[in-house]
Write a structure and sequence with these properties.
By secondary structure, this protein is of the alpha/beta class. The protein is 29% helix and 18% strand. It binds ligand BV8.
Length: 247
Amino acid sequence: MFQKDGPLPPPGGSIVILTGAGISKESGLETFRDADGIWAQVSIEEVATPEAFARNPAKVHAFYNARRRGLLDAAVQPNAAHRALAHLEQAWPGQVLLVTQNIDDLHERAGSRALIHMHGEILRSLCLACGETAPWPDDMSLESACAACDTVGLMRVNVVWFGEMPFEMERIYRTLADCDLFVSIGTSGAVYPAAGFVQEARLGGRAHTVELNLEPSEGHSLFAERHYGPASEVVPAYVERLLAAVA
Ligand code: BV8
């Protein structure tokens, strides 16, 4: 009963979209919790917490250096799902805010502009000495120096680890409370606070909630409408239905 097409937002209505690793899978990037995912190869406690970085920074640098190089491989390109969301932002006669848990830059490369990287960006650095962030496409190590303050050995990748506060939460919660449509794409609904956004949207009282995923997420029962399949198929199809209503 939930797989059938649901109501559409009013033309000019506000849309909030949340994406996770599943939207980048068909671009060749690994997810986290699929059987062949990242957390099947290495544990969160070893590479994705501030304690892990304090304990063994070289191991954490190596983990992110490998993922950064993977992202910069010419074979990794935005797919039809990334492109459909960028098109929606341009063609929809209302606000579209894209909140991604992903630390890749595939949404930007597809053309999305109204975008929040709530878990940060693997292609940016953060200096623990002066707090500056900057583009960082290369490997990072304990020998890396900050371009702003020249300090060596206190550079980290500008991502949000477990136990750290995601970015722009105030703005995200405000936009969720006022939206007419909340769409969750390619996420297992395992990580908070992102996994709670569907509840925040529902509490706002107006939002229709849609899950577009390969399979039901942990929070699937909280969504009023659900469509399952590869993102490169279900996302363009859903965007087409939204835009047909305002053509
Ligand atoms: C915080 C950046 C508080 C780094 C990441 C118990 C209960 C509730 C919460 C907690 C708890 N214990 C601990 C917590 C808090 C913790 C948490 O939620 N832990 C979980 C494990 C229980 N959360 C935090 O620590 C967060 N911070 O709570 O701070 C706070 C309060 C005050 C002051 C200070 C702090 C921070 C969480 C952010 C951690 N960083 N990433 C990096 O990337 O290396 S999280 C990581 O998981 C990624 O960001 C990822 O995006 C995120 C979620 O994963 P998904 O994107 O959903 O990916 P996943 O593989 O899980 O799922 C993929 C989905 O795609 C699947 O459903 C699959 O079916 C689907 N799919 C696959 N292929 C396709 C597809 N869909 C479509 N098409 C396909 N082709």
